[in-house]
Amino acid sequence: MLKKLFGFDPAKTTIRTEILAGVTTFLTMSYILAVNPGMFSLLDGMSAGAVFTSTALAAIVGCLVMAFWAKLPFGLAPGMGLNAFFVYTVCMGMGYSWQFALTAVLIEGLIFIVLTLTNLREAIVNAIPTSLKNAIGAGIGLFIAFIGLQNAGVIANNDATLVSLGDITSGSALLALIGLVITGVLVVKNVRGALLIGILLTTLIGIPMGITNFGGVVSAPHSISDIFCKFEWENVWSLDMLVVVFTFLFIDMFDTIGTLVGVCTKANMITPDGKIPRVKEAFMADAVATTVGACLGTSTTTTYVESASGVAQGGRTGLTAFVVACCFAVALFFSPLFLSIPSAATAAVLIIVGLFMLEPVKNIPLTDYAEAIPAFICIVMMPLAYSISDGILLGMISYVVLNVLCGNFKRITPTMYVLAILFVLKYIFI
Fold first, then answer.
1. Do residues 376 and 139 touch, judged by C-beta distance below 8 A?
2. pTM assigned to the model
3. Which of 382, 381, 378, 324 is nearest to 144 (CA)?
4. Cα(331)–Cα(333) distance, rounded to whole angstroms?
5. pLDDT digit string (tens) for 30-42?
6. Helix 120-127 crosses helix 98-117 at what angle (to 10 degrees)?
7. Which tens digits make up the pLDDT trace of 3-58?
8. Is-contact 302 252, C-beta < 8 A?
9. What gap in Å lies between CA 284 and CA 342, rounded to an integer?
10. Could you report the per-residue pLDDT of 303-324, keeping only the tens digit for each?
11. Got the DSSP string for 304-335?
12. Do 301 and 58 touch, CB atoms closer than 8 A?
């Protein structure tokens, strides 16, 4: 039954491993349940409670589709970066209503479904050279490690140098480093469930430090009636709507592609011919969740790079994604207790998973500079530009340009030429 439902294979994994992987993935991506309400509540008419509920529901829908249809171990939820574009650019910057932005998200989701059914997204993934696929995994590793360090305050803003070392002698930064040591020891000792145990122990240590604050245990889910299916069709044919929809579409597409390629590479799930198994179904999970999420009242739902933490824990099937969905369902009723886990407690896991994700670097032919230079650009630009999609785009543009100028035309597929041209136009006009 488990094999039929989730693609579970007892020869490759165990139920206990899948459950631990699902809970670990949930804990490392669950910060979205705290971030989204705070961000969207800046907009008049979007209450924090309603957004919390819609965020959890969108994640549940996405994870269930991923579990039962794609049968892959990835968690989905409204994406970071996409929510900031929604609030700060579309609503606050361009001056449009949140109803306008939700309409753009709905249109984007419907376009995604069409693109997935026509296999265009799958063709894009399969066109990426192997060296860049390995680079994407490593770049994502550096990116999520940077997110962990930043969220905990280990890395802080500096107007002179952009970033610098934060105050690591107290507060969240100190707790994160303590958690890093604890989790690191557990990983070195090969303790089963090391990442999850590290999160829990770090959370407990945060209590006497005054960082972990329990705000209650149980609360009923908040109503989403004020934001449910609130669309605005007046400006649907405007140029601004076209730009907004394309931007949502572009960022989501390549963030999802980057996450799937990177995490699947780490999990050794890439087939010998360089393809991701059931990638079309994984893309459909993303597209369906985005469409449903827009109806529920939240921003674009996407596959989370933090799924790497569950994969590192041993998650390999849809059962992991199903556990993530169950955790989001529980969080609906225990939101005060769930929100007590500080970001410092999950920072250590993100840092260590970042290390795990660097492993594909060894498969990049570093002495073949036509392959190595674009791969390096892809890796380094993800954390420095704070964008998975920009890292991929710049890596692919440089791959095509460098190999064309060097006469290595056989290395470049027709799809790569088309993508490189589109990416260049994107940077010029958007």
1. no
2. 0.76
3. 382
4. 5
5. 888 888 888 898 8
6. 70
7. 888 888 887 889 999 999 999 999 888 888 888 888 898 899 999 889 999 999 99
8. yes
9. 32
10. 998 888 898 888 889 999 999 9
11. -TTHHHHHHTT--SHHHHHHHHHHHHHHHH-H
12. yes
